Amino acid sequence: MPKDHGIGAPMKRREDVRFLTGKGRYTDDINLPGQAYAVFVRSQVAHGRIRKIDTAEAEAMPGVLKVFTSADFADKGGVPCGWLVTGRDGQPMREPKHPILAEGKVRYVGDAIAAVVAETPEQARDAAEAVIVDIEELPAVIDMKAALAEGAPLVHDDLGSNLCYDWGFVEENRAAVDEAFAKADHVTTLELVNNRLVPNAMEPRCAVGDYNVATGDHTLYTTSQNPHVIRLLMGAFVLSIPEHKLRVVAPDVGGGFGSKIFHYVEEAFVTQAAKVLGRPVKWTATRSEAFMTDAHGRDHVTRIELALSKDGEFQAIRTETHANMGAYLSTFAPSIPTWLHGTLMAGNYRTPLIYVNVKAVFTNTVPVDAYRGAGRPEATYQLERVIDKAARELGIDPIEIRRKNFIKPDQFPYQTPVAVVYDTGNYDATMDKLIEIADIAGFEKRREESAKRGLLRGLGVNCYIEACGIAPSNLVGQLGARAGLYESATVRVNATGGLVVMTGSHSHGQGHETSFAQVVADMIGIPEDMVEIVHGDTANTPMGMGTYGSRSLAVGGSAIVRATQKIIAKAKKIAAHLLEASEADIELKDGKFSVAGTDRSVAWGDVCLAAYVPHNYPLEEIEPGLEETAFYDPSNFTYPAGAYACEVEVDPETGKVTVCSFAAADDFGNVVNPMIVEGQVHGGLAQGIGQALLEGAVYDENGQLLTGSFMDYAMPRADDLPFFKVDHSCATPCTHNPLGVKGCGEAGAIGSPPAVVNAVIDALQRGGYTHVTHIDMPLTPARVWAAMQR
Amino acid sequence: MYNFDFVKPTTLQDAIAALSRDEAMPLAGGQTLIPSMKQRLAAPSVLVSLTGIPELKGVCRADDGAVCIGAATTHAEIARETAAIYPAIAALAGGIGDPAVRNRGTIGGSLANNDPSACWPAGVLGSGATIVTNTRQIAADDFFQGMFTTALEPGEIITEIRFPVPEAAAYAKFEQPASRFALTGAFVAKFADGVRVAITGASEGGVFRWREAEEALGASFSPEAVDGLSVSADGMIGDLHGTPEYRANLVRVMTRRAVARAQ
């Protein structure tokens, strides 16, 4: 019988009532008196020099308030980058200015050139079409390796190169790694592409700027995963607005997947335009704009080599990756292919020597940044694919070769050769569980049954590890982060015992309002409905870093625990006073403070009332009221890990891949709400399977986005997916946060692409297509069929 | 979307009159035209809805046995109404898009648009149907004239499609993964006097009849009859979702599957 409340209970999400009945309040639902509307004039060419922008006709059109160009932002900063990566040569990355509106040049299709603000969205759009932009089109660079070639057109002329940085990790290991390769019994090499993805959150981006001319206060309502980060970046670096005069609100947000972490130019635009015009200004992206301008994900081209002994022991890994930055550096872009990717290259294994080289490249495409998993899927995919290929080359079972190299349970904490220290884990246990839930023993029978229907069945298995709960601030500071990555919480107890928890985390699909309430309710022993979770508004939440990197429960939840512990400690003092007992003898259980060993007790609500009506109260010792704030800065990352299995059928006549089954055995440490965790895994799996089989952003050689709509960009749909078998029972709790939790938001998207691809290659190999050792994602029917043709 | 006038006549005569206005366009289910207008890629000054005209709607049986479908009949209604009398056409209609598309989109709109990846052109050409307009009757073989091009004159309105009912027929489509339009679809129909095979989605020339397959299947209406045939990739569509070679392969595979389904 599962628990019905508190930590560990599969409680239904309280937020779903409003989301499923149309009662959510999203940014586009916010309409302010006197609101005007912005429409952007966007570049239709990937690269060009702006000769002239003629706004006269547009400004004369009905309803137009103003047409803005870069001249209107001459005294404003560009959108900053939040992470400085240093190259192998010791030099900082090349960091171009990212202006709010294009200055002199356009650098990708969709780059904002001008913006019209008008009384209605239709008038703004009509006028935007009347803005005449004279552009001298320049040759575009789309392919990363071509962008690095001698004489390639420069995305940023002033930088002198399209290379953002050339990063080596761990640079000191390089010679030893090369030596290990020179001596190895066997080297397996794989060249692969981690396909570029369009995030496609259900809710397109939206921003509303408001300015109070009487007080000088700015407010920005925006579709963000981290309103405080936006306030800091936009206020300090772009518009020079002190934080106490700038409020950023991210209300209900319909999915982010990383794409709503970043500070976008449209946010700064509406904030400034509202001040200039003295009117609230709203911008809502069309779906076409979302495709063109939301930061894309992945887009790595990698060569990975694995050195092994003849019996399959991993000896060294060497990689070279080209990582696409797009035309400008998005907020966290430089960190994704480096610190969130290179540090995970040990995977679940004891490989002693690892060297990762990453060349980050500017191209005439929309910026690329974090997308669900962010660097860790790229690491996992190449590692688990090359292991599969090596196992096949050496004739070792793919599960056995992994087991042979696993870090064993008694080796934790485990120092990897790529900086990070895994605190805990048990990879054999999750693999055992996977073998059970995936019924791997029954595969051969299922394969024969598929063969009778003319279909090739394959089994793909892989492991993954991720670093979540980002991050220890002092560590990431050393690595180039220009921010701390703690999290905050204020717990406010009301006089009658209800609580409001104000968190710096932000929920945009993760169910925080439910699971965070479970944590607090469990700690105090009261029903969840006495706990309200407030997030998303810099005016009423403490400075927080927001939600990404599966960090909210591990970091934000820990801050809530700490603040609640402070509340409980103070409440015990009050209870001791009321009970005329020693504080040390007070116990809290089921919402009641008791004196140990007696039947004397006082209820939670009475203690809270005493705090706010302090007639009988130790005023000389403690202050009235019951409100506490905590900031939690983790001492390490968390390391969720697991083992995944996928079975596919390949139709040899058409190349079509059908996912027959997918099993996921995850170690998330402790789990607060197993129903939400399963939902997170399901969503992640859907995105990972989508990446493996369906999704891929494609630019043509001129930089036009060929996959600019759902007509050509294939999203996974329910009927593309099997029923998932998921398990998180093999838990090794995190050793360094108070809840023992690791994070579950990205695992599915990280662990699933290699399982799918491994399964397809397995199906083809078993079916006699032994020349097919790799196919790049997405494994569309056409690609699989083409690979099968000799 | 730009501004436009909208009229919804209730008779064919009124519709024809309305279509004579400057830059008027007929609107059937709007599954192509409305998205184009929303993207500002189409800008008619007048939209003349054809969905309020009773004589353009419904399914009936002619004296000669032909299944007659009003041009403004939705895919969903066709799927329901032809299930017993022409199941291959019902299956084709029931496999178009999703329920929202099927309850808005019409057969006449699809044919007049003649999207090279649409399903109806295969069903109509494969059945050897007759397209009836307000002025004449056009054989399917004469109607489709290349991608997005038909024999229709400006202002001419499709009123009805007449399908002779074959002895056996089936449609097999391989879906483009994103749009789920036909990457390649084959409609096969066996009549007393021969077999017709129509292919959609594959050719740069739009829907076409695969004569070699018709001949082979005329001799032996079995999936194996298609096996020995090869299809040239010349003139096949090449795009993100498939090379000309891939589509040529699908022509054979989908035809074979349609024949198997029709057995």
From TrEMBL, chain A:
Pfam short name (any one): Ald_Xan_dh_C
Residue ranges constituting the Aldehyde oxidase/xanthine dehydrogenase a/b hammerhead domain according to the UniProt record: 21-139
The domain of life is: Bacteria
The UniProt keywords, alphabetically, are: Molybdenum, Oxidoreductase
GO molecular function terms attached to this record: iron ion binding; oxidoreductase activity
Provide the protein name: Carbon-monoxide dehydrogenase large subunit
Species this protein is from: Albidovulum inexpectatum
Automatic annotation (TrEMBL), chain B:
- Gene Ontology terms, MF aspect: FAD binding; oxidoreductase activity
What range(s) does the FAD-binding PCMH-type domain occupy? 1-168
PROSITE patterns, sorted: FAD_PCMH (PS51387)
**Keyword tags:** FAD, Flavoprotein, Oxidoreductase
Q: Which PANTHER family match?
A: XANTHINE DEHYDROGENASE SUBUNIT C-RELATED (PTHR42659:SF2)
Q: What name appears for this protein in its UniProt entry?
A: Carbon-monoxide dehydrogenase medium subunit
